[in-house]
Amino acid sequence: MRIPHCKRELMKGNKMESKFNDERYLTFALGKGRLASKTLDIFEKIGITCEEMRDKSSRKLIFVNEELKMKFFLAKGPDVPTYVELGSADIGVVGYDTILEENRNVYEVLDLGFGKCRMCVCGPESAKDLLLHHERIRVASKYPNIAKDYFYNKKHQTVDIIKLNGSVELGPLVQLSDVIVDIVETGSTLRENGLGVLEEVCPLSARMIVNPVSMQMEKARIRELVMKIRAYLESENQENK
Asked: In 3D, which of 111, 100, 109, 116 has the Cα closest to residue 209?
């Protein structure tokens, strides 16, 4: 993993480490859309604000809270683990599906509990036997790495993976694939097209990830942040029971 120049300098001595921690900003990469909005809601509950990010008319790319020495930027989901792994962001918030698919060298430190859904194997009822008897089948998915890991390492079933970027539900309908591996929230699109959930791969939700070097160099700040968020989430869960 590439270590940013400033972090290599930090390793030279305790004096540099103290200066580094006093002056540097903690940088966050947030997945665009609802995920970023929900993350900001949680941050505001624990006293971390960045009002500029709420301004939808703003053309800025990086937002700063000078008082707390924090920077924030928005990124497409699949790019968030890349920014975090390579040190452009200390912390990222992204869906668990992206973490699994990208397979980057990052630490997953917290399940934020929102954006819950499932990664599933879906298809017509007739495909159940193909799955049951471990026959060689074609699997269409936007998530080829997740699909491959599930079938090869968990089910020990040989499959042909077909990468699609659009509506994967089309796969079985036009006989491109026998089944699909995709995110399921309500399942309404599946039902409307004569498909259903055949197997569950794993549950999904928004997660917080951290750069491994940042975890060492900014351990106290990151640990405090994680503890505050966890305490808030636990109190919310208690109130909702």
From this structure: 109
